Amino acid sequence: DDHQLSDFEKIKVLGHGNGGTVYQVRHRYTGAIYAMKTLTADDPVRRQQISREVDILRRTDSPAVVRCHGVIPTPSGDIALLLEHMDAGSLDSLLSARGRSAVSEPALAGMARQVLLGLSYLHSQQIVHRDIKPGNLLVNSAGEIKIADFGVSRIMRRSLDPCVSYVGTCAYMSPERFDPDSYGVNYDAYAADVWSLGLTVLELHLGHFPLLPPGQRPDWATLMCAICFGELPELPETVSGDFRDFIERCLQKDSSKRWSVAQLLLHPFVDGLEQSESDRAFCELISEPPSPPRGMLVEL
Ligand code: ATP
Ligand code: MG
Fold first, then answer.
1. For a substitution probing ligand 1, which of 138, 145, 172, 173 has the most ligand atoms within 8 Å of its CB?
2. pTM (predicted TM-score)
3. Which of the residues 81, 94, 119, 292 has the least number of beta carbons within 10 Å of its own beta carbon?
4. Does residue 159 come out as left (phi exceeding 0), alpha (psi in the -120 to 50 range) or beta?
5. What EC number(s) would the UniProt record show (predicted)?
């Protein structure tokens, strides 16, 4: 853990987020490649958020969670996280690169299984991620998917703290987090991650955020209405019964009816296919060349 900032050279930008820019860096002496995420601690609330993220990264140790190899203070008072580099980007960038065309069911099953294993680990450590979405699920060329970005995660202590305060994206937030009275008083905080996973899997199949028409950039109120009162979109007829059922189990508005991670790991959509087959389908997806966006004419 005794790294210094000057031991690393920046190679390129990997992504931008609320928290700051993420760079690909190389260790000058070992040549090892990492991702470096700098967190700016400019106010007390932010400082608390950062210490929570660092705390969680330090205590997680799972192949399904992006590893943190060091926490380096910068001269300007910021903090740089040295993270395992995920060389195939996020599921969000993967979806954009393939023109947001539908991901196949076997590939989604493989993906869902890996994320469920990650969530199962986190939940066993009393950690609720609270920001599961395509941009926070990172992929490497070995076909592994890992959960990243603990910027708004919570460690549950004693009572189930109903996690009311929130900063960040709300598109993937579950109904009970907007309105605990209607969708589960004293709700199970872990169920929120299942909702977000269901929405993520569905988005990868539909090619757009499921609760709104494609291309819409909604305000907060529109989003909240869509999440709490909106119907789930009609799934294409070609979708299998297992897929349909899996999505419905995840996207129960009433959090007490939603399946748990442990139950979903045994769901036929995830458990039905031979594991090697769904993993292969996911690996093929990563190695596919980028396709043109939907609706664009291609000259042959
Ligand atoms: P947001 O608020 O948008 O969720 P954030 O500031 O919390 O973002 P991250 O989600 O951790 O930051 O990272 C932002 C982006 O940087 C990711 O979507 C991904 O594209 C890239 N990224 C982050 N960590 C890594 C990593 N370990 N390896 C490769 N790319 C990464
Ligand atoms: Mg993020």
1. 138
2. 0.88
3. 292
4. beta
5. 2.7.12.2
